[in-house]
Amino acid sequence: MDDKKKIPLNADEQALTEQETQAVEAAKEDAVAGADEAPAPKAKTGKAKKAAEPAGETADAPAEKAAKESEAAGDTQTEAEKKTYKAEKLPPKPPKSKEQLDWEAARREKFNHTVWQPILRPIVVLVVICLVTSLLLGLTNMVTEPIIAANTEAEANAARQALLPEADSFTELDLSQEYTNVSDIYAADNGAGWVVDASGKGYGGDVPVMVAFSPDGAIAGVTFLQNNETPGLGKKLETDKSFRAQFTGLPAEPISMGSIDKIASSTISTGAAVSAINAAIEAFNTEVQGASSGAMTPEEVRAYLLPGATLQAIVVPAGAEGVQPTAWRDDATGDIIAYGEAQGVHSTVVAAVAVDPDGAILNLWLDTSGETEGFGAPVQSDTAFIESFIGLTDPQQADNVAGGTLTSNAVKEAVANVLAVAPQLADAPADPAGGTENTGGDSSTSGTQTEGFPGGISSSAYVPYPGEGDTPLAGLSVAEVGEALLPGETLSRIIVGGPAGTSQHWVSDAGNYLIYGNAEGIGGHVAVAVAFDEDGAIVGILPDVSSETPDIGGLVPDDADFMDAFIGETDTEGIEPVAGATVTSEGIIDAVDNAVRAFSEVKNMPISGEVLR
Amino acid sequence: MDQSKLVVSPSPHILAKFTTQKIMLAVIIALVPTLVASAIIFGWQVLLLTGVTVGACVGFEALYCLIMKKPIPVGDLSAIVTGLILAFNLPPAFPLWMAIIGAFVSIVVVKQLFGGLGFNFANPALVGRIVLQLSFTGAMIGYTYPASIGGADALASATPLLAGQSTQVPMIDLLLGTHGGVLGETCALALILGGLLLIFGKVISPVIPVVYIGGVYVFKLLLGLGAGGALGLVAWDSLAYILSGGLLLGAIFMATDYVTSPYTRKGKVVFGLLLAILTVAMREWSNMLEGVSYAILLGNLLVPFINVLTRQRPLGVKKRAKEQDAGKGAA
Amino acid sequence: MNKKKVSNLKVFTNGFLKENPVLRLVLGTCPTLAVTTVLFNGIGMGIAATFVLICSNVVISALRKVIPSQVRLPCFIVVIASFVTLVQMLIKAYVPALNESLGVFLPLITVNCIILGRAEMFASKNTVGASALDGLGMGLGFTIVITLMSFVRELLGSGTLTLMPGNDALTFQILPEAVAPMSILALPPGGFFVFGVFMAIAYFIERRRGKDPEKEACAGCPSAAGCAAKGACETNGA
Question: Using CA atoms, how far apart are residues C75 and A542, in angstroms rounded to an integer?
Fold first, then answer.
């Protein structure tokens, strides 16, 4: 600082702090220097700058002015007070020069350009806009959220209602466990049944399905919800009524792919649909029917196989191939339970076999859960298959399950393993670690395989229509029926999306067609094999009335007038039922009618490749 | 010098023997055996379908050029070839109106809208077939079961590929074509005959068909051996494989289209191999029944790149690059 | 910046043909191709997008002097997104069928280039009233085009015309059941093709009206105002 320019301080100033004094001195010096010389030197410290500003104004009273300017310059409280005090005590500063003002304006401008415009203002604007919009959205949400929730609920309910028309409202059940493919189960409040939401892995994502179960445990209906499958193929799941209809009335047991008619050319989508339905069935059985999910405990299995027995654990001789090391024997009767194993398609198949001392199979329990879904896995619940073993001494004589040949063979192998070692087990030593158990229960409960079965329910097993799958029609296989109605012609099976009410669709090399129609008679299922020529005119029919009353309905096929009435017709209009056997006749007429209606769909469909020679 | 002996005339000075018309005519002649064979196998409706398709193609081309005030190129017979090949991609009982739509797509959309012959981005008949496949899936796969030939017992199965087991259809039937399928797929003999006609007539280069078909055979062989089959069985199976489906038709008549295939021999080899890989991959691992059409389409789209990559280097270019590098290194 | 005063009517009708957002400006092609498979979708999407467009245009125009240019894009997006969310909530509450039909394309209106494009090209430089009209015109142009496209694609591709999905009374089977519809039109390749045909028709109509888009280059190009490569098209050979 230049000594020469120093202005002597008066007494008031000494009351100020040292710093203030210096700042004021510097400011005074600057102000004076500014008045004499041209450009004002740029003040280095912020404080000096601020102190310099008040010195330039002359209009207002020093104190208020200082206060205002402090505010404008953004000073803190204490600084403002200091300035006010300063202004009161100190003499008014000389007015700022024009250069000073210009310089200050330039500084403000620079602040605007460097800080406010590029950084602060955008931030402020953006923040304000975000706040306002958030507020707006929050308000709208408050208004619409309850409506949306109610909508979703109503929609889902409407879908369920469509499946179970008798139900009034639904309540969601609490599930006892997590299911991978089932999302929820709803029970109808008036006891009209249940609806399960499930899904399967399809070609383009999930294939969601709603399965409705009626109070008696059978499937009341199935709906496929929106999926992303190929349009025209898998997407038809959503709209194809005849495909859906196949599932109505089926019992809540795992459905195998071989037993349903698929949608043409969409194996994967159909497979996903079926596995979704099976998942729903399993969840339904576990949650609603109370059947234990997963495998039965070993004790339960043994109790099922040989009820009312006292079993002693025995050791299986080493070297016995394909049999688990621990088996059980009822010393009173000599019956043996042993666990045979064999390699299936994907997993080891286990067969728990109860064998009597003569080597005949008493009962059988299977675990094929690790096999292919829809093909080999349901073998374990296939009643007909299991019952075909009972009484056999050679397991190879049992029939295979359609669509699960390899798994069936593995089962037979496992059973054979047991039978091979059974004679040795009669004298096998007791297993000290195994102990004994009483299987309890009475032997009369060893009824149908489906009781207490994994995935089984206590209702009666599904009875196939005559001619369905491998079931014979009137005791004849498809080839034999074909030979009877269309002699000398070779049949090829047709791929078809399952027109409801029919079970077999074949075309012959001469251009004729063979379709099995299904209907109900007085005692159960009635099926008719209908042969058509290429224009849809009936050339022959072969009914199966085995479920009907033997001397009433069972005699309808012998009525020549009735049977001939069909020949040459393209529909069943005006055909009179046989007097005295109306229900059976109507059943036959319905079955033929189903076949007739299926004909137009079947007529131009491609062949599957299977040929009967 | 005796000036009068020098002849002065404008170019062209060397004329190739082939005009577009002659080439197209050769292709038509090569397609005739297949037409005859289909007609015998499937019946007279084949001629109707083919006639309608060809007529529609020619008609659309003439109509389009009339509307757009361009010279009518029908005389170069390319529309007829497109119509024939398109018809051969259709099953015998195909509705005629759908065939007409296919003809429209092939000629107007793929060929004319892009600038006419020589400017199409893919084989017109091929794209027509693909569009029809996507539009009318049901009708396209509704293979009519063929009536018997000359009294012999006819076969009762769907197309060999559809049935999934080429060996189910005896080889003789694959060759003679007495099995289900589209018009042009079935009679392998007729197709091969047509192909030989074109090759010996120097109309098409044998590189693409040979590399394509051979490639498919080899890949299928390798796959079969890799899955643990006996050589003899796998070799026979692979032979059946290349005789099934639209491979012969595609390899001989569609992949060799001048406009949409590479022009250098190396390019043709690359193209053929690419098609072989794509076809086998699609047939084996995709959800589609037949891989040839999409494989050829993808190949067509890649042809400009194949051309660039396999362009023959002019003499001296490599040397120049080497010199440049050497020069840079020294400096 | 040329401040040619354009009449309000012209601003409104701009969006119909001359600067139709879909066919001439080629904006908003994603929803155009994706939702035009069903007639109901076309109408619904058009109305939703128009509403968002008008609202966002108005707000952005009102704030055009306040929003600094460095953050204009984030600001525009926030405004647009909030209106889209609003619309989505309203639709979910009052027309749930539309929400299901449109699915993910409803929230995707946020990035519909038409809305952001008009905010940038028009609303940020013009008065509120003009922007509102522009929004209305563009929105209507968009709606008309996608409705027509849905009509064609659904009619020829599926044989039906659906005014309300799930409601059998409002779903019409136009093509007789025996006639197979050309399903490729309901698939993406068909969508592109129909789109191309519509663009060609718009171009053709413009040419007939005497405004040959090809010959006029920048003068005839509707995107000229917002184009960064001015004049480049001319040199590339129009």
Answer: 78
Of the candidates A232, A233, A609, the beta carbon closest to that of B163 is on A609
The alpha carbon torsion through A486, A489, A494, A499 (nearest 10 deg) reads: 0
Taking the C-alpha atoms of residue C75 and residue A424, their distance in angstroms, rounded to an integer, is: 86
Query: Given a cut of 70, is residue B148 above it in pLDDT?
Result: no
Pick from A103, A83, A102: nearest CA to A93: A83
**ipTM, 2 decimals?**
0.77
Mean model confidence pLDDT for chain A: 75
**pLDDT, tens digit (0-9, with 9 covering 90-100), for A199-236:** 888 766 778 888 888 888 788 888 887 776 665 566 67
C contact set with A (CB within 8 A): 63, 66-68, 70-71, 74-75, 78-79, 81-82, 85-86, 89-90, 92-94, 96, 100, 183, 186-187
Tell which B residues from 200 to 229 touch C, by Cβ distance under 8 Å: none
Chain A residues whose beta carbon lies within 8 Å of the beta carbon of residue B143: 606
Q: If pLDDT is split at 50, 70 and 90, which confidence band does C234 have?
A: low
Residue of B nearest to C200 (CA): B113
- Of B23, B262, B260, the closest CA to residue B120 belongs to B260
Mean pLDDT lowest among A353-367, B104-118, B148-162, C18-32: B148-162
Q: Which residues of C touch B136 (CB under 8 A)?
A: 180, 182-183
Residue position matching structure tokens 């064609």: C152
Nearest to C183 among A118, A133, A231 (CB): A231
Long-range contacts of A149-155 (CB under 8 A, 24+ apart): A151/C92, A151/C93, A151/C96, A152/C96, A155/C96
Q: ω before A606 within 30° of 0 (cis)?
A: no
Long-range contacts of B172-178 (CB under 8 A, 24+ apart): B174/B240, B174/B243, B174/B244, B175/B243, B176/B149, B177/B37, B177/B38, B177/B41, B178/B41, B178/B146, B178/B148, B178/B149, B178/B152, B178/B154
User: Residue B160 — very low, low, confident or very high, per pLDDT cuts 50/70/90?
Assistant: low
Please judge whether C92 and A125 are an interchain contact, meaning their C-beta atoms are less than 8 angstroms apart: no
Q: Of the given ranges (A29-33, A69-73, B233-237), which has the lowest mean pLDDT?
A: A29-33
Q: Yes or no: say if C87 and C51 are a contact pair by the CB < 8 Å rule.
A: yes
Query: pLDDT digits over B10-40, tens only?
Result: 877 777 766 888 888 999 999 999 898 888 8
The number of angstroms, rounded, from the C-alpha of B226 to the middle of its chain's C-alpha atoms is 30
Q: pLDDT tens digits for B259-293?
A: 888 988 999 999 999 999 999 998 888 767 678 89
Phi, psi of B131 (to 5 degrees): -60, -45
Record: contact A609-B143, CB cut-off 8 A? no
Domain boundaries, chain A: 3-96, 170-287, 298-445, 478-612
Put simply, the answer to whether C182 touches B138 (Cβ < 8 Å) is: no
- Chain B residues with CB-CB distance to A232 below 8 A: 137-138
Rounded distance between C-alpha atoms, residue A253 and residue A431, angstroms = 37
d(CA A372, CA A384): 19
Best of C75, C88, C168, C184 to disrupt the A interface (most A CBs within 10 Å) is C75
Q: Which domains does chain B have, with CATH numbers?
A: 20-309 (1.10.3430)
Contacts 24+ apart (CB under 8 A), A44-47: A47/A19, A47/A23
CA angle A329, A330, A334 (to 5 degrees): 90
Q: Which are the contacts of C152, defined by CB distance < 8 A and separation ≥ 6?
A: C185, C194
Contact between B136 and C185 using a beta-carbon 8 Å cutoff: no
* Average predicted confidence (pLDDT) for chain B: 81
Q: Length of chain A in residues, anyone? A: 613
CATH 1.10.10 fits A170-287, yes or no: no
